[in-house]
From TrEMBL:
The protein, known as: Fis family transcriptional regulator
Keywords: ATP-binding, DNA-binding, Nucleotide-binding, Transcription, Transcription regulation
Example GO biological process: regulation of DNA-templated transcription
Species this chain originates from: Acidihalobacter yilgarnensis
Superkingdom of the organism of origin: Bacteria
SUPFAM superfamilies, per the entry: Homeodomain-like (SSF46689), P-loop containing nucleoside triphosphate hydrolases (SSF52540), PYP-like sensor domain (PAS domain) (SSF55785)
Alphabetized GO MF terms: ATP binding; sequence-specific DNA binding
Gene3D superfamilies with a match to the protein in the record: 1.10.8.60, Homeodomain-like, P-loop containing nucleotide triphosphate hydrolases, PAS domain
Domain Sigma-54 factor interaction: 131-359
Pfam families attached to this UniProt entry: AAA_lid_14, HTH_8, PAS_4, Sigma54_activat
InterPro entries: AAA+_ATPase, AAA_lid_NorR, Homeodomain-like_sf, HTH_Fis, P-loop_NTPase, PAS, PAS-like_dom_sf, PAS_4
Length: 439
């Protein structure tokens, strides 16, 4: 095949496409690749290193902790798909999905053919609903989410409060074959014995005092879609057996109903607890755990991917500017403050910090002075983290309960403000209030 024909064939592709040799050197690049990465249409790109053009690195990306399709394809000859962060012609980071194929020449020589799909950039879509993060750790997690979306198996999302578990559940649903179906959220912290069946399975007219009309339950509403069981670790033991039964058979009866109904539901669950440990302690059923946790995806805390803080802060700030209808920008010192902080409340706390900063800034310039971090909370979180020397001082829950009581007093019992100050959702706060008898 002539060089001109090869070039025309790859130029006909809309996605950036590039051929790379074993030494990471470009052999050919199509027009879309040149355009996206700022290479002149007529410039000779042959011989340049792929990592230098798209990653802005001076060494192969696997040395940077990334999963490199180059290494996989040359080692196994098999197609390999990964998510990576690339830098476009303006130096903007963006998430891309790379499919690396083994391409053989007439003389048997092996090349890597990379087809690059650009996932939407945050600024193109606003950050509402976008999962922002470019660090290798975050991209690995996104890749796991993407792979789990294709399967029907139960997925358990685990991570601290505010890391984005609910967003991750949406991500899975919208990329799954059930995307056209409903996504129904069940808040397991609100389900008690009496409510459980009526909420989950619905009820018939007059099934119990006060039940007006027939109402389908959440399980039925999720038919052909995804049921998101949020805070599943909070479900009392006696309800876990009922949940397991319906998940195994897909069959249920509405309260007060005779007919056995069926719903086709895929389950994604989330927890900020160590569910495996709860199984070992006997407070979570092992059979239910295995039903829910066919695939376990751990979402990293924000402090475990600090390199993502500037991009996240930028996107969240843009969103706030749109809401407030005025431009704002952060100084380098303000961003440095954010990067150094541990964010026990993760992205939700980052959002709150930025919200306060926007409100405090008279002229839209956010300097370190407007970054009001709850350093005492951070210190507490660090000192309360389990230490190798054993637990010192008051147990975590006693300290937390006292702290929440103080906040309630300080905010005159205003729960939304207390949740904001804690950097948790109102739902999480209600759970804690119930647990500590403060409600
Ligand atoms: N990667 C991300 N990019 C942008 N925004 C994010 C990202 N992850 C989370 N957020 C935002 O952070 C906030 C908290 O996320 P979410 O409610 O999904 O967390 P969670 O882990 O479910 O918290 P909780 O356990 O307290 O319910 C939301 O406003 C969400 O939109």
């Amino acid at each position: 095949m002539g060089a001109n024909l090869t070039q025309s064939l790859i130029d006909a592709q809309d996605h950036p496409f590039v051929l790379i040799d074993e030494e990471y050197r470009l052999v050919a690049a199509n027009l879309a690749y040149r355009r996206v990465y700022g290479l002149d249409e007529h410039a000779d790109v042959v011989g340049r290193h792929c990592y230098e053009v798209s990653h802005r690195l001076d060494r192969p990306c696997h040395l940077n902790g990334e999963d490199c399709p180059h290494r996989q394809v040359f080692a196994t000859g098999e197609t390999h798909e990964v998510l990576h962060t690339h830098y476009d012609a303006r130096g903007q980071a963006e998430q891309v999905r790379i499919r690396g194929h083994a391409i053989r020449g007439i003389d048997g020589q092996l090349w890597l053919g990379e087809s690059i799909e650009r996932l939407a950039t945050p600024e193109a879509h606003g950050c509402e609903g976008r999962m922002i993060g470019f660090s290798p750790r975050y991209l690995r997690m996104l890749q796991q989410l993407g792979q789990s979306a294709a399967s029907q198996a139960g997925v358990l999302l685990q991570g601290e409060s505010g890391v984005g578990k609910e967003l991750a559940a949406r991500f899975i649903h919208h990329r799954s074959p059930r995307a056209e179906g409903p996504l129904v959220t069940v808040d397991c912290t609100t389900l008690n014995g009496n409510l459980f069946e009526a909420e989950l399975f619905g009820h018939e007219r007059g099934a119990f005092t006060g039940s007006v009309g027939r109402r389908p339950g959440l399980f039925e509403q999720a038919d052909k879609g995804t049921l998101f069981l949020d805070e599943v670790g909070e479900l009392p033991l006696e309800l876990q057996a009922k949940l397991l039964r319906v998940l195994e058979t897909g069959e249920f009866r509405r309260v007060g109903g005779r007919n056995l109904l069926h719903a086709d539901v895929r389950v994604v669950a989330a927890t900020n607890r160590d569910l495996r440990q709860r199984v070992d302690e006997g407070s979570f059923r092992e059979d239910l755990y295995y039903r829910l946790a066919c695939i376990v995806v751990s979402l990293p805390a924000l402090r475990e991917r600090r390199e993502d803080i500037p991009a996240l802060a930028d996107a969240l700030l843009n969103q706030l500017c749109r809401e407030h209808g005025r431009p704002c920008y952060m100084t380098r010192e303000a961003v440095d403050c954010l990067i150094c902080y541990d964010f026990p409340g993760n992205i939700r706390e980052l959002k709150n910090v930025l919200q306060r900063a926007v409100a405090l800034s008279p002229d839209g310039v956010i300097d370190a002075g407007q970054i009001d971090l709850d350093v005492s909370r951070e210190r507490r979180a660090v000192s309360e983290a389990p230490s190798a020397e054993g637990s010192r001082g008051a147990p975590l829950q006693r300290v937390e309960s006292r702290y929440i009581a103080e906040l309630l007093a300080h905010h005159d019992g205003h729960r939304r403000r207390v949740a904001e100050a804690l950097g948790v959702s109102e739902r999480t706060l209600y759970r804690k209030l119930r647990r500590y008898g403060l409600g």
